[in-house]
Amino acid sequence: MSEPFVFDPPTRILLGPGPSEVPARVLSALARPTVGYMDPSYVGLMQELRGLLRMVFDTKNDATLAITGAGTAAMESAVFNALEPGDKAVVCVHGYFGDRLRQIMERAGAEVTVVESAWGSPTRATDVEAALAKAGDVKAVGIVHGETSTGVRQDIPEIASLAHKNDALLIVDTVASLGGVEFAADAWGADIVYTGAQKCISAVPGFSPITFSDRAMAAINARKTPCQSWYLDALLNLTYWDTPPKYHHTGPINLAYALYEGLRIIDEEGLTNRTARVKKTAQAMWAGFEAMGMSMLVPEESRLPTLTTVCVPDGIDEAKVRAYLMQQHGIEIVGGLGPLAGKVWRVGLMGASCQPRHVILLLAAMEAAFKAQGVSVPSGAGVAAFSERMAG
Amino acid sequence: MSEPFVFDPPTRILLGPGPSEVPARVLSALARPTVGYMDPSYVGLMQELRGLLRMVFDTKNDATLAITGAGTAAMESAVFNALEPGDKAVVCVHGYFGDRLRQIMERAGAEVTVVESAWGSPTRATDVEAALAKAGDVKAVGIVHGETSTGVRQDIPEIASLAHKNDALLIVDTVASLGGVEFAADAWGADIVYTGAQKCISAVPGFSPITFSDRAMAAINARKTPCQSWYLDALLNLTYWDTPPKYHHTGPINLAYALYEGLRIIDEEGLTNRTARVKKTAQAMWAGFEAMGMSMLVPEESRLPTLTTVCVPDGIDEAKVRAYLMQQHGIEIVGGLGPLAGKVWRVGLMGASCQPRHVILLLAAMEAAFKAQGVSVPSGAGVAAFSERMAG
Lengths: 392, 392
Hints:
- Chain A is α/β, with parallel strands linked by helices.
- In chain A, about 45% of the residues lie in helices and about 15% in strands.
- In chain A, the strands form four sheets. Chain A has a seven-stranded mixed beta sheet, sandwiched between helices. In chain A, strands 11-14-13 form a three-stranded antiparallel beta sheet, covered by helices on one side. A two-stranded parallel sheet of chain A has the order 1-12.
- The longest helix of chain A is centred in the C-terminal third of the chain and has 21 residues, at about 270-290.
- The interface between A and B is large, with 71 and 71 residues.
């Protein structure tokens, strides 16, 4: 006989690839009374949101909004609006999410050239240059800025220049990076950029920011066929974000409250202060892992501060470590995906999850988990190295 | 100089076409701690949700889930999974949302036959029969059960029989009806049925239930081409709802908490008790409107209890009435769409919005609003007629 289900979501320490810890301020905002999707208070909130979204994307793009759905809905909106059936596209695949971008480009009926690099390495600009030259007449290039599957941070400006030199749009996935890692849509030349609410913004999942440059909007307005999704059609969605708004779908009212509060927290700290703080905390955590005898998969120059892939030491059963962390302390870190399964842990420092107290607990708990498997670790070395770097 | 924005969502009395009033229990659930999208507690919740969704759809369909997005995302999932480019489809348009279904079928590349009826009248089965015969080899028929734009309740079983006789799938939109009006997916032969969370279920918007019959799943599995949306692909989405789940996208964790609680409230009351209560309240409200000298657009046999289109009396400025209700009491009712603009108000009794105290306030406030425009109404007649019917 199975136990009756009891609804009682536990308080986890979310150090995985997202969702991240949601601050109490955001949860309180989420539970405010639901209003109509055309209520003056909601229309006002949407305009505030647009301003805050421009801040976090570092853009002046008029066409800045959020898509009602997961980050993958925003990814699909980016691709479906940029590409028409038969268009040529180049996609940079250096992990799981680059490959998802490829699959969605294929469902858009595009002729896709894949630029592949090993999981753990970023895409090389020279490879993109060669692919653009070979394919010819490419409409869009897609690339992931922060690959959650590998922990790679991809340099964007050079790829953007190449795309523009070839009259192609640059689509950038910042789901795992925006709000936690330096990013500048306008200065770097990213034409369509999207993210999720539940990673470095620390709002809850289901409402996904996206921005389109004027170049992207000109291309979208010049399409010969309508977007293959009515729901994700940028032109239709944007009419809802206009003043006065035109009905397109029911906005996810309470999620907008949460996103607003999550963005306000970033604005209050200051985006540059925040990315610097995350970087410092990540570097200190890396020092902690190294002091415990572990190494990172990705070389430091391409390492994503918000998501670290740390290699599982020899002799350690990685799944048992995760189970120990979850059972003893409710800590969520996750295993590797695809070719990295069993080889790495993925440790996130996204949004409100990026707190020294969480890292200290993680390092101490990992030490205990290693010892429980009979693997020796210098006692307290991880925490000491972390604390020293944080104090420096 | 514009006033600084203050985030302070007001407490409205939501008597429009949705979102409906969200019970405190649901808002509290919404604000529970966010967990990971593969957390054992979330995986358990998804299974509970599937059971509760089968209850509200009145189905045994294995393929019962919710789509991360607005009701329109679920509409698009229904269409994109059922139809491939070049497939023939019949769509019944008796209002705004039937027309949206048509637009989405066209974006799916289908060859669409439209069966149109006047706004305010349901689709006639004989018209569907003729369209099916004329088009030949139709893959799917689409129809709206509760038209939010007109207040029409459409009879389903006969249309379902016709679809099945022609080997077509029946897609039914229940966004404005499910959980508030009698509906039986299995008994009536509806193959793909979807709804929204924020209408008669009174959870918040952004997570939209959908169910696929075994016939629908067989057709989907027999497709020659993949679904044109990776995000809305039913086969991929269903892997996330399996046990153990396979990652597809990040579920809208906190919205799932809200949907669960909204469905629990329905389950506790009992679906049949609930639809009977809504019907009784609606009938009493109609009596109230009539006692005030108003008439309903839709004849009673086709009238949707959850959304009433009440005709604007001669000599009344309808927008001024809505402004009065909103400004004096924070009551939201809305105006007519398309050909009904200026002619009707749309009054919803969806989910937790269906409460006698709200109807009494509405009737009293409308009387005052009419008098403020110099139009005479028998004092207290609306409230008296409502209360009498409710007591009966």
